[in-house]
Amino acid sequence: MTSTAGLTLVAIVDFAAGAETAGQRYEDAVLALLERHGGHLDRRLHGTDGQTEVHVIRFDSRAGYESFLADPDRSALRSALGAAAPTTRVIEVHEPVVGHAGVAAPTARAWRPGPPG
After folding, report:
1. pTM of the model
2. Mean pLDDT by 10 residues, the chain (117 residues)
3. 2 near 67, Cβ under 8 Å?
């Protein structure tokens, strides 16, 4: 059964060693294709290691995500990069439902650094 509801994805992108700049340019180009498929980039975070990015992406529908994956422009960009293309792990995520399956309502807590040790 295919859902027509929107979905949220987290993509963990690892750049090939020595190809970080090319990988970031590739991601710039690929992320620009999202809107034609009903996708929206919510967050783009850069890892402190310089090798990783994390993207939070929303699609209006699963069909939009599938269309994005099959986009010929995306495929051409990936092919052009060859072995320097980043590897990506995609995880479908959702907000927890408060009060469902033991999920408690979030509470605000102040972070206080402990003594060095």
Report:
1. 0.77
2. 72 96 96 97 96 97 97 96 94 83 56 51
3. no
Please report the pLDDT score of residue 106 as a whole number. 55
Residue recorded with tokens 């529908």:
61
Query: Could you give the CA distance from residue 61 to residue 34 in angstroms, rounded to a whole number?
Result: 12
| Strand (E) or helix (H) holding 90 | strand 87-93
98 CB-near residues (< 8 Å, 6+ apart): 104, 105, 106
Q: Considering Cα of 9, then 79, then 34, then 69, what sign does the dihedral take? A: negative
Strand partners, 10: 56, 91
